[in-house]
Amino acid sequence: MQxxxxxxxxxxxxxxxGVSLEAQEAKVRxxxxxxxxxxxxxxxxxGESAKSLNRPGLQRLLDLMNAGKIDAVIVAxxxxxxxxxxxxxxxxxxxxxxxxSLISVAESLDxxxxxxxxxxxxxxxxxxxxxxxxxxxxxxxxxxxxxxxERVGNIAFGSRLAEDGQHLEPNPIELEAMAEIRRLRGQGAxxxxxxxxxxxxxxxTRRGTPWRLESVARIVKxxx
Length: 224
Hints:
Layout (H helix, E strand, L loop, with lengths): L1 E8 L11 H15 L2 E9 L9 H11 L5 E4 L9 H13 L3 E4 L4 E2 L3 H34 L11 E3 L6 E3 L1 H15 L4 H10 L12 H10 L2
Parallel strand pairs: 1-2, 1-3, 3-4
Antiparallel strand pairs: 4-5, 6-7
C-alpha cells in the first residue's frame, strides 16, 4: 500500500506540545509501520490555516490522489486536514471516489474499514443537519426582524430608514413613483414607456437619476 502522510500546523500553534510538525510526523510514521504501508512522502503545510483548503501541501496531496498514485493518506488528527465539517465531508467523499483510504491516528479512523465508512455517513448527516439548522435560525431571525418593522438587508424602494436607524418608514416620494408605475403597467404600458412618463413628471430614482427601462423593471418585480 502506497501512502502519503500529511502534517499541518498554524503559525500560532507551532510550539504547542503534541501538535508540532515533528510530533505529527512521528505519529504518521508509526501508523504507517502498523499498517504495513510504504510511506512514500510526508507532505508539510507549515503556518497554514485550516479555514481554507487552498493550501500548497494539501493541493499537492489532492493532485497525487487524483492521479491515482496513492492508496492511503495518513494524518495525526482529522483537524490537520480541515476544521470545517463541510470541507471534511467533501474530502472524505473525494477519498471514497478515488478509492483512497484516510487513516487518522487520533480518531482511530480508517475509511478502508466498515467502521470507518460508518463514520463518514455519520459525519455527512451531521454536516447536513448543521447547514439546515443554521438556515432555519437565520430565516427565523430575519422573519422576527421583519415582523418588528426593522431593516433586513437592502431597503426596498418605497421605504426609508427611520431616525432611530433600525426601523423602516414609508418614503412618500418613492411611493408616488411606485403608484405611477403600477397604474401605467396596469394600462399595458411598456417599461420604456413608463420610464419616459416618470421622467416627464420629473420623478427620479433613489439615486436621483432619470428612470431607465432597467430601473423600472426592478420596481415592477416588487409587485410580484
